UniProtKB/TrEMBL annotation:
Native species: Pseudarthrobacter phenanthrenivorans (Arthrobacter phenanthrenivorans)
Protein name: Thioredoxin
InterPro entries: Thioredoxin (IPR005746), Thioredoxin-like_sf (IPR036249), Thioredoxin_CS (IPR017937), Thioredoxin_domain (IPR013766)
Keyword Ribonucleoprotein: no
Location of the Thioredoxin domain: 1-105
Annotated gene: trxA
């Protein structure tokens, strides 16, 4: 599956309708963003069960601000509509694959239980 472009209007619906969503915050003028794009696209092809979204921070300034983007590229991962990973920088293919597997293997019930204990 190819990457999809998301906007402020489609962001929430994208999270609602997909179990795992990776989001690449980027801009056309950003060299590291352009270098990361093929790695991100290849991961999207290898993992059709995951939604790989892209947010153009120039076109979607409000969304980038709402996500507290301070540096690009920034990669975020959501599982069950919950932010589980956020890191600025462009990981290499191996690093990206490690993050993908970690997110896939994440037990959300256990995570919610731990959060519940911390809030108690």
């Amino acid at each position: 599956m190819a990457t999809i472009d998301v906007t402020e209007q489609s962001f929430a619906e994208t999270l609602e309708s997909n179990e795992i969503v990776f989001v690449d915050f980027w801009a056309a003028w950003c060299g590291p963003c352009r270098m990361f794009a093929p790695t991100y696209g290849a991961a999207a092809e290898r993992h059709p069960d995951i939604t790989f979204a892209k947010v153009d921070t120039e076109a979607e300034r409000a969304l980038a601000a709402a996500a507290s983007i301070r540096s690009i590229p920034t990669l975020m991962a959501f599982k069950d509509k919950t932010l589980v990973f956020s890191q600025p920088g462009a990981p290499n293919a191996t690093g990206l694959e490690e993050v993908i597997q970690a997110v896939k293997n994440l037990d959300m019930d256990e995570l919610r239980a731990q959060a519940g204990h911390q809030n108690a």
